[in-house]
Amino acid sequence: EAGVAQSPRYKIIEKRQSVAFWCNPISGHATLYWYQQILGQGPKLLIQFQNNGVVDDSQLPKDRFSAERLKGVDSTLKIQPAKLEDSAVYLCASSLASGSFVETQYFGPGTRLLVL
Amino acid sequence: KQEVTQIPAALSVPEGENLVLNCSFTDSAIYNLQWFRQDPGKGLTSLLLIQSSQREQTSGRLNASLDKSSGRSTLYIAASQPGDSATYLCAVEGSNYKLTFGKGTLLTVNP
User: Fold this and answer.
1) pLDDT at res. B98
2) Following DSSP, what letter does each residue of A33-83 receive, concatenated?
3) What does pLDDT average to in each consecutive run of 10 residues of chain A (116 residues)?
4) Is B85 in a helix, a strand, or coil?
5) Which end of chain B, N or C, is surrounded by fewer C-beta atoms within 10 Å?
6) Does B43 score more than 90 pLDDT?
7) Is the pLDDT of residue B35 over 70?
8) In chain B, what residues touch A4 (CB-CB under 8 Å)?
9) Residues with Cβ < 8 Å from A99, sequence gap 6 or more?
10) What is the pLDDT of residue A99?
11) Is the CB of B43 less than 8 angstroms away from the CB of A91?
12) Per-residue b/e over B68-101, b at no fewer than 16 CB within 10 Å?
């Protein structure tokens, strides 16, 4: 089965510019996650969707970050305007969310963002 | 707030050695604990998932243990190989399927 797809793989922008990332989860996976992983750190959850509804966005900097998941499938994460500290790898993950706590999340390869 | 700590931050061993990676967490109210592997420039791959009611899980040369009451887990890698070189991340899952990750252990296995 196809894995989680993300694009672009790399992006370099200047501060105050805007950027958008795209994620296509594994077919049939109801839950989609966006994580931010700063160099030397573990991934930090930014936002979690269940189908097209937001379950948790408590750690999303809402003044500059936004995300949507239209039709409960693909998702986009946008940063506007970007700051230097947004330089990180942005990981998308998905899971079946069948109600069981024995299933894992499947991660995409990530988008590496560098803000200059 | 759940906090996950991994020790050591980096580890370098010769090929063939057995090794242990450590993970501790502050809130024992977890549903499961997972160990992930991350290769440079790639996403995370789940290695082992231990349910909160379990004590350990094994997959090939990997064995993970969980002591929920003390907030500790270990990942044991037997007969390490250069291909095991990667960053190993520990994550605990709480409510709403939310994962909290440690910073990882960077493992280098030297031929």
Assistant:
1) 80
2) EEEEE-TTS--EEEEEEETTEEEE-TTS-TTTEEEE-GGGS-EEEEESS--
3) 90 97 94 94 93 90 94 94 97 80 83 97
4) coil
5) N
6) no
7) yes
8) 43
9) none
10) 58
11) yes
12) beebbbbbebeebeeebbbbbbbbbbbeebbbbb
Supply the pLDDT for residue B107.
Answer: 97
Interface size, chain A vs chain B, as Cβ–Cβ contacts under 8 Å: 59
Q: Looking at chain A, which residue has its C-alpha nearest residue B41?
A: A109
CB < 8 Å to B102, chain A: 42
Q: Which of B34, B99, B101 to mutate to test the interface with A (most CBs of A within 10 A)?
A: B99
Closest C-alpha among A4, A2, A1 to residue A109: A4
Q: Locate A29 and state its tokens.
A: 């996976």
How many Å apart are CA B60 and CA A42, to the nearest integer? 25
List pLDDT tens digits, range A86-107. 999 999 999 886 655 567 889 9
What are the C-alpha distances in Å from A76 to residues B13, B56, B88?
A: 41, 37, 28
What's residue A51's pLDDT?
87
Interchain pair B103, A55: CB under 8 A: no
Tokens standing for residue A89 = 């790898």
Find chain A residues with C-beta within 8 A of B96's C-beta: 48, 55-56
